[in-house]
Design a protein that fits this description.
The structure holds 2 protein chains of 2 kinds. Chain A is an alpha+beta fold. Chain A has helices spanning 89-92, 102-114, 214-228, 233-236, 271-280, 298-310, 352-367, 380-395, 404-418, 464-479, 553-568, 571-574; strands at 3-8, 17-22, 29-30, 35-40, 45-49, 54-59, 66-67, 72-78, 119-122, 128-134, 144-149, 156-157, 162-167, 172-176, 181-186, 193-194, 199-206, 370-378, 424-426, 433-435, 441-443, 445-447, 450-452, 455-456, 493-497, 516-520, 524-529, 534-547. Classes of the chains: A alpha+beta, B alpha/beta. The interface between A and B is medium-sized, with 12 and 13 residues.
Chain lengths: 575, 472
């Protein structure tokens, strides 16, 4: 009985993961598949389940520990000791067993969503019977317009053929035929308003037809069993049809102030403060009072309004800010969609980096008026020079590989010197520009956890080799998740290179407080007219997004021309 | 028949109506005010609050002169010249209505005299002694007020009065019945008693001034027990007018067995709203069965351009409430985003002594399940009250127990109405007991009792035994 076994960490994706939650305590009885701990990698968090029911005897890890595949989490006494009935297991292990639980319910949903219009059948004399086809459950919508009749009396229909088309204010949908048959009579016409249960038409079906498939026989049986119970039975039928195009409830506009209340109880605010709050539509329970005993004063209401106007609007509680809200803008909220209705799904939490960078990206995208300038740089000579140098470096075993990015950084640093507006930031008040006398360039690095932007400092003062070495180090650090926040601060300008992957152009989002970002796509051999004939030249696509409040179009064009000139002939940087 | 076009029509020139009209005019809105009376001011100024206060002033001085004999100063028995008393009252009214009329002219608010009835959502017809006037308006404020409730079994007899009749002071009845133990009846009873009438008060409920707390009314009852004969939980079942008087039959707990003869009967059983007298339905405005008109917090009726304020939008039927509502209506019409959003509305009975309360009463606190604590300072412990022979009084404060926040207060005693302002301000400002206790109140004043009640709650009182003192 007392069979002590180790709880081993299963395959967690080949890397060290951090324990972020202990789901059980020593002495607890667990079922198979119950979560022991929750771990988080930089990609996702997951629960580690136990393999069989039993009692937890010891736990060797604590929150914050790093564990990997094969590590021992603790020990449990397995086997018959588990007194909990099996039935409770699914309820207790919802997260980590999607393949066990979710698909079942998905299937169930899929089935209900496919089920057909309710039909009352009335046995006819010999082998032929007629059934009444009614409007299925169409969600909350009632009094829905019929906009089209798809069949006429005498038509023969197959199962699932559309009979009529309904239009709600949100969607149109067809009412399908529950089974094959012939339309005997139509009970509706175009323009009629119908609701769930309204009679649509009468269908004559071949009750005893030997060619009927099993499934349609089952359907018929079902229909008969329905008629066998008293009249209102269609409504109470357990498999109440939920036809697939069921419209969802109308999107409810989200009121951003409906979030957590600062003042749970009564608000202290004098009549003049209350009047001011009313004028601005401020919910005083949300305002932190600065007066004695948290009294809300006029200043508090004013600064609350100021803050509400200036802060990046997001769904309170969702740091990603891209939830089902209007994002604080005066737009309709995203409608809620039950994706599981359309097929199998899996919900994966955003990575930590995504959670952090999402709101910033959103803010930058919404608050900065972006324009993107496209250009191409002829890097034929640059590439042959680079390859030469790499060959030499390899021979000398310098351990450095020069990438095209390094030259871009030098070219950008040079362009920043020429066009200092690009090396600026808007002051907090938005009234002035802060001009920087240093040239630190951020490099967007794709890491397993998400996008990170480490910064290479003083690019203008460093040589190609030095920058190459630094870039290699910093990229490696980024991929290993070892970047410190200091490594990612102080950039003047950002380069995002997707050249290694592909693409012709893209529109990067300015990395505020920078005022511009250079996107680099994959270089391509292109025929270029040299005056006499076409020359094959290696062209590098450049996409410069900039903050139009600071930089105007002509300046941006000059900047990309300067960068592309420098890349096509590096000697220009020396000038 | 004349026709006028205006931006705003205010129907009724009581405190609510004229406040709305004047405020609107000051905000640049072309305004016309309609009232049947020749003077502005409505019931309040003409036949309500103001004239009754003029008479109550007379009553108070008579009383005090009488009391002074106990302190060694004796005046002769007073003689009353009713015409002169009435003249004094009328002069007070005249002075105020003249003032209003002047302010109205200054603001270019035109007064159309007559009864106004809506004929559509933008038109109203006024029937006055100079004929009919049709006014086309953009916005309207219905401020038609209320009138005394009359009882079906009361005979038509000139000896039966309502509050308006009582203020006319035609004579000083030997024996008068006040039918209804509310504020209006008790105030008029106070006046007539001071002038020598014998007063009986009959009230159907178990308490005079039913809205106020029991302990407050008990203190008031103590002071009037020698003045009024009160019959609680008793109702009048019939009044028979005979040549020698009105014979009133009672039924209930304290009902006399036989009908009682009175020289006059004052019916003061409440007021009913005039919502159904203005043909509001022609404008599409919904009027309830009882004659009230429902409005939102901006005083807007169900018709967007028509507002309603004052007595006919609901209780309490008080001039100061109406005036504030009038301002809100005018400001909303002028495009301001204002709301009628008070935390409390004071009530004052200008009896002798006065009874005043504001915010939640203790019985409301119990009903609402509030966690409250009461601190009551008896005026017997007030130096000033003793010095003015006004010890029949108390100051009661109601605090939220956990926070000490003031949520209500009630005062019985001389000048209680004047003192109430501080408590109202405290409630609106969200003050708590500590704030009031730390505010230095002048000594010796009656008003000081509010600070002392707060000290009682705080446990810092020294003018009385301190129940919260640390025991040694």
């Amino acid at each position: 009985m007392a069979n002590l076994i180790d709880i081993i960490v299963p395959d967690v994706g080949g890397e060290e993961v951090e324990v972020i939650e202990l789901c059980v305590a020593v002495g607890e009885t667990v079922d198979a598949e119950a979560s022991i701990v929750t771990v988080e990698s930089d990609k996702a968090s997951m629960d580690i389940p136990c393999t069989e029911p039993g009692i937890i005897k010891s736990l060797k890890v604590k929150v914050g520990d790093k564990i990997k595949q094969g590590d021992v989490l603790g020990q449990m006494e397995s086997g018959a000791a588990a007194p909990e009935p099996e039935a409770s297991a699914p309820a207790e292990s919802p997260a980590q067993a999607p393949e066990a639980n979710a698909p079942e319910s998905d299937v169930a949903k899929a089935e209900t969503s496919k089920s057909e219009a309710p039909a009352k059948s009335a046995p006819a004399s010999s082998g032929v019977k007629t059934i009444e086809v009614t409007v299925p459950d169409i969600g909350d919508a009632t009094e829905v317009d019929i906009i089209e009749l798809l069949v006429a009396v005498g038509d023969t229909v197959e199962p699932e053929d559309g009979l009529i088309t309904l239009e709600t204010d949100k969607a149109t949908m067809d009412v399908p035929a529950p089974e094959a048959g012939k339309v005997v009579s139509l009970a509706v016409k175009v323009g009629d308003k119908v609701s769930k249960g309204s009679l649509v038409l009468t269908l004559e079906v071949a009750g005893e037809s030997s060619v009927e498939s099993d499934s349609s026989l089952a359907d018929t049986n079902a229909a008969e069993s329905v008629i066998a119970t008293p009249p209102s039975s269609t409504d109470s039928a357990p498999s109440a049809p939920a036809s697939a195009p069921t419209p969802k409830a109308p999107p409810v506009p989200h009121h951003p102030s409906a979030g957590d209340k600062v003042n749970k109880g009564k608000v202290h605010a004098s009549p003049s403060v209350r009047r001011l709050a009313r004028e601005f539509g401020v919910d005083l329970t949300q305002v932190q009072g600065s007066g004695r005993k948290n009294r809300v004063q006029k200043d508090d209401v004013q600064s609350f309004v100021k803050y509400e106007l200036s802060r990046p609007k997001m769904n309170p509680g969702s740091s990603a800010g891209s939830g089902n809200t209007g994002g604080g803008l005066q737009v309709l909220a995203q409608p809620k969609v039950d994706f599981a209705k359309f097929g199998e799904i899996e919900e994966v939490p955003l990575t930590r980096i995504q959670k952090l960078s999402g709101p910033n990206l959103h803010r930058n995208w919404v608050t900065i008026p972006h324009v993107t300038q496209f250009d191409e740089a002829d890097i034929t000579d640059l590439e042959s020079f680079r390859k030469e140098q790499n060959a030499i470096a390899e021979k000398r075993k310098l351990g450095v590989k020069i990438t095209p990015l390094v030259f871009m950084m030098k070219a950008v640093a040079d362009a920043l010197k020429e066009y200092p507006a690009f090396n600026s930031s808007l002051s907090e008040s938005g009234e002035s520009l802060i001009m920087k006398k240093y040239y630190h360039i951020g490099i967007a690095v794709d890491t397993p956890g998400g996008l990170m932007v480490p910064v290479v400092r003083d690019v203008d003062k460093k040589g190609i080799m030095e920058i190459s070495r630094e870039l290699m180090e910093i990229s490696a650090k980024a991929r290993d998740g070892k970047l410190k926040s200091a490594d990612m601060q102080g950039s003047c300008f950002t380069i995002s290179s997707l050249g290694g992957i592909g693409g012709t152009a893209f529109t990067p989002i300015v990395n505020a407080p920078d005022v511009a970002i250079l996107g680099v796509s994959k270089s391509e051999m292109k025929p270029k007219w040299n005056g006499k004939d076409f020359d094959p030249r290696l062209m590098l696509p450049l996409s410069l997004s900039y903050d139009h409040r600071v930089i105007d179009g002509a300046l941006a064009a000059r900047f990309t021309v300067h960068v592309s000139g420098a890349l096509s002939d590096l000697r220009r940087i020396l000038l | 028949m004349s026709e006028i076009k205006t931006q705003l029509v205010v129907l009724g020139a009581g405190p609510g109506g004229y406040s709305a009209a004047f405020r609107a005019a000051d905000l640049g809105i072309d305004t016309i005010i309609i009232d049947a009376r020749e003077t502005l001011g409505g019931v309040c100024l003409n036949v309500g609050c103001i004239p009754s206060k003029a008479l109550l002033h007379v009553a108070k001085v008579i009383q005090e002169a009488k009391h002074l004999s106990a302190h060694g100063v004796t005046f002769g028995e007073p003689t009353f010249d009713l015409d002169k008393i009435r003249g004094w009252k009328d002069s007070v009214v005249e002075q105020l209505t003249k003032g209003l009329s002047g302010m109205s002219k200054m603001r270019k608010v035109k007064h159309v005299q007559g009864y106004g009835k809506f004929t559509g959502p933008n038109t109203i017809e006024v029937e006055g002694k100079d004929g009919k006037t049709t006014i086309t308006f953009d916005n309207a404020v219905i401020a038609a007020g209320s009138e005394p409730v009359s009882l079906p079994f009361v005979p038509k007899d000139e000896r039966v009065m309502d509050s308006t009749g009582a203020l006319e002071m035609r004579d000083i009845p030997g024996k008068m019945l006040v039918l209804g133990g509310g504020i209006i009846g008790l105030e008029m009873g106070t006046v007539y008693h001071a002038l020598g009438s014998k007063i009986d008060v009959v009230e159907f409920l178990d308490q005079l001034m039913p809205a106020a707390d029991k302990d407050i009314v008990k203190m008031y009852m103590k002071t009037i027990k020698n003045k009024f004969n009160t019959m609680l939980e008793t109702k009048v079942t019939g009044i028979e007018a005979k040549d020698d008087g009105l014979y009133v039959t009672f039924e209930g707990k304290q009902a006399p067995a036989e009908p009682v003869r009175y020289d006059r009967v004052l019916v003061a059983v409440g007021r009913k709203p005039n919502g159904s007298l203005v043909a509001a339905e022609k404008a599409g405005v919904t009027v309830t069965d009882r004659g009230f008109i429902d409005v939102d917090k901006q005083m807007r009726t169900n018709v967007a351009n028509i507002f309603a304020i004052g007595d006919l939008v609901g209780q309490p039927m008080l001039a100061h409430k109406a005036a504030h509502e009038g301002h809100v209506a005018a400001e909303v019409i002028a495009g301001k985003k204002h709301y009628f959003d008070p935390k409390c509305i004071p009530s004052v009975a200008y009896t002798e002594p006065e009874v005043a309360w504001v915010g939640v009463t203790e019985k409301e606190a119990i009903e609402q399940g509030l966690n409250y604590e009461v601190a009551t300072f008896p005026w017997a412990a007030s130096g000033r009250a003793i010095a003015c022979a006004a010890t029949d009084g108390l100051t009661k404060m109601i605090f939220e127990k956990d926070t000490g926040r003031v949520i209500g207060g009630a005062i019985v005693g001389t000048n209680a109405g004047e003192m109430l302002g501080e408590i109202g301000l405290a409630i609106e400002m969200g003050a708590d007991a500590e704030d009031i206790a730390l505010t230095i109140h002048a000594h010796p004043t009656l008003n000081e009792s509010i600070g002392l009640a707060a000290e009682l709650f705080e446990g810092s009182i020294t003018d009385m035994p301190n129940p919260k003192a640390k025991k040694k």
